[in-house]
Design goal:
single chain, 404 residues, alpha/beta, Rossmann fold, 8-stranded mixed β-sheet, 14 helices, 19 strands, 35% helix, 24% strand
Length: 404
């Protein structure tokens, strides 16, 4: 559960089939400790009823600009002043056009115009509507005006077509709301993260890999985004969707990951090497499937490049964070790795307790000693790690500034 028990989110619903997802979003927000006030357009009530949102939020749902239940008849003022954030999900093409043009002809558009808090919108529409020049102009105007655009995603649509325009899923919207309330300790910083396993081909169907799920690296990417950073995520093959807002670079082998890091690192302020990169690869992968025989098969392996060592060894390296997963003698191996790689911070854990699961526990090693992050969901551990990184990075920058 997020630490937002007194935060109020005004959840606006406009007309569209994706309105059914807003019910799940409301449930998730309430479950996470937020107060949710729903406001619906007349079109939204054709897809999901106000009674549904009222049952989920425990609060009356407002639909009318002339709501007599509001003592001063100024619902558009009172509702927006009570909110810490307005999230319109789904936001139809029509509603986005209203916002971009400053129109206010119903309760939701009026309170958005009269708001005194940030505004997020989650577009949802047919792919042709999303691709139209008018919609693109409206989105550009809203972004220029400081409105946060969440999505859309690509996929199957209710009309039977496939393409961009789907509203992103409720869980992703929850993460965006959580992130909005996180301290922006890495505001404007450029963070490069590696995540997941690598796969080293033996033949067209077999390879050398490991059990890394990528969950820790992806959680750190999300936490860095929430902290205000611009994030590039270089990921090996995983089954996870990259966090909205991150630049995603997909790779397979260690060599591909190394090439991607070399390309991206020149712009990075912080590098976090979370990926479980294979130490070795076959000297030569077979072009054909290796047939099973009664005898032994021998593979000749060669070392893969050490990505963390390369980044830390650059003439002007970014602030480097390494990861070490060990099966025994964790502290000794972690300390040795930190000194060998010459990185200011190394996060270590026992491989058998962390790989593939939803929870983790870390021991952080830096110049001040060791710092334990107790076992918790990886999202929580990621936020704690990012806060520690931000503090050390600020100290490093301050020390450099004092030196000249």
């Amino acid at each position: 559960m997020a630490d937002n028990p007194k935060r109020t989110v005004l959840l606006g619903l406009t007309g569209g089939i994706a309105a059914y997802k807003a019910a799940e979003l409301a449930r998730l927000l309430i479950q996470d400790g937020f107060t949710v006030q729903a406001v619906m357009t007349a079109a939204a009530t054709r897809f999901v009823t106000p009674a549904t949102l009222q049952a989920l939020t425990g609060r009356p749902v407002h639909t009318d600009l002339w709501d007599a239940s509001v003592p001063n008849s100024m619902a558009h003022i009172d509702l927006s002043r009570d909110a810490d954030l307005i999230l319109v999900a789904p936001a139809s093409a029509d509603f986005l056009a209203k916002l971009a043009g400053g129109l206010a002809d119903d309760l939701l558009s009026t309170l958005c115009l009269a708001r005194d808090c940030p505004l997020m919108v989650a577009p949802a529409m047919n792919r042709q509507m999303w691709e139209r020049a008018a919609t693109r102009r409206n989105i550009a105007t809203l972004e220029k005006d400081g409105v946060t655009i969440l999505g859309p995603a690509s996929g199957d649509q209710a009309c039977g077509e496939t393409g961009m325009g789907r509203m992103i899923e409720p869980d992703a919207l929850l993460q965006a709301v959580r992130g909005f309330f996180q301290p922006k300790v890495l505001e404007g910083r450029r963070v490069l993260i590696t995540a997941g396993p690598t796969f080293e081909a033996v033949d067209p169907v077999r390879g050398i890999t490991n059990r890394s799920s990528g969950k820790m690296g992806y959680a750190i990417a999300r936490a860095a985004l929430d902290a205000g950073a611009r994030v590039t995520l270089v990921s090996g093959p995983v089954s996870l969707a990259p966090p909205a807002g991150a630049k995603s670079v997909n790779v397979v082998s260690a060599a591909e990951m190394f090439d991607a890091v070399k390309k991206e690192v020149k712009d990075a302020d912080v590098f976090i090497g979370v990926a479980a990169v294979a130490d070795y690869r076959p000297v030569k992968a077979s072009g054909e499937k290796i047939k099973k025989t009664r005898g032994h098969v021998t593979l000749e392996l060669t070392r893969n490049p050490d990505i963390l060592e390369y980044v830390a060894g650059r003439p002007k390296p970014p602030f480097c964070v390494g990861f070490a997963a060990e099966s025994e003698d964790l502290e000794r191996y972690a300390q040795e790795k930190r000194k060998k790689k010459n990185v200011p911070l190394l996060a270590a854990n026992l491989a058998q307790t962390a790989i593939g699961g939803d929870e983790n526990e870390l021991i952080l090693f830096d110049d001040d000693g060791r710092h334990e992050l107790a076992r918790a969901p990886k999202e929580v551990i990621a936020r704690q790690l990012v806060e520690h990184i931000a503090a050390l990075y600020a100290e490093q920058q301050s020390a450099r500034h004092r030196k000249g």
